[in-house]
Amino acid sequence: VCYITKETTMSETHNAMLSAIATYTVENEKFTDKGVKAAGTRARKALMEIGKLVKARRKEIQEAKNSATV
Asked: Which residues touch 54 (CB under 8 Å, ≥6 apart)?
């Protein structure tokens, strides 16, 4: 779980997204292949976290673009 703050850097957000995607992948596999119901809940939680991180990353990219510092 990543907590997004003003001090979070673009690379930290990117790495948190990759971590959340990896978590989702593992939990989804447990849910779909092995039928572990609790893994379905964890997979949904990871998807929610990915959504939050995607919004934060979009905002970071837009701010960097507008300030012309990449």
From this structure: 17
Residue from 39, 38, 46 nearest 20 by CA: 46
* Contact of 11 with 2, CB cutoff 8 Å: no
pLDDT tens for 2-29 read 555 555 688 899 999 999 999 999 999 9
Helical H segments across 10-36, by residue range: 10-34
C-alpha dist (Å) from residue 58 to 33, 54, 66: 33, 6, 12
Q: How far apart are CA 33 and CA 56, in angstroms?
A: 32
CA–CA separation, 59 vs 41, rounded Å?
A: 28
